[in-house]
Amino acid sequence: MRPRSTASVTVGLLLAVVVGCSGGGEPDRGEGSATVPPPATSATPTPAPTPTLTAADPVSIPGLIAREHHGSDLRLGAVRARTDAYTQYAVTYRANGLRISGIMNVPEGKGPFPALVLAHGYIDPDVYTTGRGLAREQDLLARRGYVVLHTDYRNHAGSDADPDNDVDLRLGYTEDVIGAVHALRGAARPAIDDDRIGLLGRSMGGGVVYNTLVVAPGLVDAAVVFAPVSSLPADNFEHFQRREGDPVAAGIEAEHGSPEENPRFWREAAPITYVDRVTEPLLILHGTADDTCPLRWSQRTAAAFEEAGKDVRLVTYPGEGHTFYARWPDSMETAIEFLDRRLPGD
User: Fold this and answer.
1) Residue 24 has pLDDT above 60, yes or no
2) 100 is a domain residue
3) Residue 157 forms part of a structural domain
4) In a domain, 40, yes or no
5) Please, what is the angle between helix 135-143 and helix 328-342, to 10°?
6) Which DSSP symbol is given to 35?
7) Where is this region: Disordered (predicted)?
8) For residues 48 and 109, what is the distance between their CA atoms, to the nearest angstrom?
9) Can you tell me the mean pLDDT for 58-73?
10) Cα 333 → chain centroid
């Protein structure tokens, strides 16, 4: 087992600098024979390394790296559901001082079980309810022997508010996921094997997973993303916010500048800039007909991981869209096989 971070991750002021993404305004929906097309070109080129920073903007990947991250006080609340395979609880935990709500599925049996933190895609917080998103994955993964902690994120359901989060590219969601892992590991619950913890995210949540891997290397053992957003936040800003007339776009530009006006900020927000920090294996699953998050985004991200010598696999599903309805069973078997191999039992 590789050495891992302690209950708080402290990483001094960094080394490198470039672009990240914690999501756009794409809807969360749900989604196999695998082909891997060559990386396609993009209107936004992969950024080159930039000089070392002497100080980190707190709204940046370097800012997150420089910050000390805490997660604790995982509390099981009311039972939401009981099945033949698991019990689902409402939960809360603390992440960098905020109270975050969510749900947790605990398999029947003695354990200890491997655990997964799930990062959902974009759902308007005004209509979001606790545990919404990734419902199929929550159920199946618990039935296959995983403790599943699905975080609601800040500003969602019963979580505390963070009024600046949208304007700050939703980087706070990354803190919530890192905090969820620490809270699981510090829970001292016999059902949880804290030496076997992974991440699974889809769509916007895929971008949150990318951020987590570069901000906190060694925190988890493996990661899976379905139909992820771009690892360049400038792509997501243009595709989901500026092009769609999202009113948040004006606030982002007023606070941080547009990608054209302030390219340094957008480079420093991008996980692809810091891919050399990643230590965990990554599986990317993407449909070739996805018109919400184009396949070329995942091709470019996988190519950057490969160029950096990282353990990455891109599996594509011909004709599948963003929702993975037709090939969802196949894709989940691929994901579970990957997780079982990377988070093995005794």
Assistant:
1) no
2) yes
3) yes
4) no
5) 50
6) B
7) 24-57
8) 50
9) 97
10) 20
Beta bridge partners of 198: 116, 222
Q: Name the residue range of residue 215's domain.
A: 71-230+279-342
90 assigned to some structural domain: yes
Query: What pLDDT is recorded for position 20?
Result: 32
Residues 311, 315, 316, CA angle at the centre, nearest 5°?
150
List the CATH number of the domain containing 335.
3.40.50.1820
Q: State both tokens at 263.
A: 């390219």
Name the β-bridge partners of 70: 8
What residues have CB less than 8 Å from 307, skipping those under 6 apart? none
**pTM assigned to the model:** 0.86
pLDDT (tens digit, 9 = 90+) per residue, 179-214?
Answer: 999 999 998 888 999 999 999 999 999 999 999 999
Which tokens in the block code for residue 8?
Answer: 């708080």
Q: Give the tokens for residue 146.
A: 């995983």
8 Å CB contact between 325 and 290:
no
Alpha-carbon distance 5 to 10, whole Å? 9
C-alpha–C-alpha distance, residues 256 and 271, integer Å: 18
**Tens of pLDDT, residues 83-139:** 999 999 999 999 999 999 999 999 999 899 999 999 999 999 999 999 999 999 999
Categorize the per-residue pLDDT at 244 as very low, low, confident or very high, splitting at 50, 70 and 90. Answer: confident
For residue 172, how many C-alpha atoms fall within 13 Å in the half-sphere facing its CB?
23
For residue 135, the SS3 value is helix
* Strand 113-119 to 192-202 pairing: parallel
